[in-house]
Amino acid sequence: MQVHVADHPLISHKLTLLRDETTDSPTFRRLADELVTLLAYEATREVRVEPIDVKTPVAMARGVRLSDPRPLVVPILRAGLGMLEGMQRLLPTAEVGFLGMVRNEETFDPVTYAERLPDDLTGRQCYVLDPMLATGGSLAAAIHFLVKRGADHITAVTLLAAPEGVARIEAELESIGVPVTLVTAGLDERLNELGYIVPGLGDAGDRLYGVV
Ligand code: PRP
Ligand code: URA
Question: Which example biological process does GO assign this protein (predicted)?
Fold first, then answer.
């Protein structure tokens, strides 16, 4: 898996504020949104385009436009929803599919409670949004869903990732055979015994939307 850890002072600045336990929910949502917009720039580096001509007030110019089929953005509910608008800002014509997953906090296994994806993803570029890549169970399950439907180009966008989660995705991808790119604002030290990213930012879903 190609892993891009964003290296930009604005991203580091916003990520630091996001980590701060005194940052309130409205500010957390705004920062997550801003961070995703910055990450989306890197994540869409290989988005497919086709050449077009436009007429400027002066002359004809060669340009490009996003080509069909449209990219598919897949936020993993709940916390991934906090990243959707930021991604759509850069890819307004993308379609959106949904996966609802919650992690069993004892086994860390993901439980899928909702799935609304197009049946056929052949030839589609897919962008999976989830702020946290911890054990990697949720992202691995999401990748399996997409690959089963034909996706062959997957980019995961996260705010934070743990080395354990990255290693798990890399191991699973060997049997899947589809390349995946990860774009993240930060690669942290490790997971703790509760499966939380250290130093991390806590529970992303709770900080975005409240404790459930
Ligand atoms: C969080 C997070 C990821 C998952 C990461 O979701 O948003 O989806 O945990 O953990 P993993 O890499 O170990 O699978 P959570 O289960 O807390 O659900 P939520 O988004 O509804 O809060
Ligand atoms: N899910 C979160 O929201 N935070 C973590 O640190 C790990 C999983």
Answer: UMP salvage
Q: Are 64 and 118 in contact (CB under 8 A)?
A: no
pLDDT along the chain (212 residues), means of 10: 96 98 98 98 96 98 95 98 97 96 94 97 96 98 96 96 98 90 98 98 97 88
> Ligand 2, atom 2: nearest CA belongs to which residue?
203
Identify the active-site residue in 20, 107, 109, 190.
107
Q: Is 48 annotated to bind ligand?
A: no
Task: Determine whether 109 is an active site residue.
Answer: no
**Catalytic residue flag (residue 29):** no
Q: Among the bound ligands, name the one nearest to the CA of residue 190.
A: 2
Give the global pTM.
Answer: 0.96
What does the pLDDT read at residue 71? Answer: 96
Q: How far is the CA of 36 from the centre of ligand 1 (A)?
A: 17
Pocket flag, ligand 1, residue 157 (CB < 6 Å):
no
DSSP assignments along 18-84, one per residue: HH-TT--HHHHHHHHHHHHHHHHHHHTTT--EEEEEEE-SSSEEEEEEEPSSPPEEEEEETGGGGGH
ipTM of the complex: 0.98
Please report the domains of the chain, with CATH numbers, ordered by start residue: 2-209 (3.40.50.2020)
| Per-residue confidence (pLDDT) for residue 212, from 0 to 100 | 86
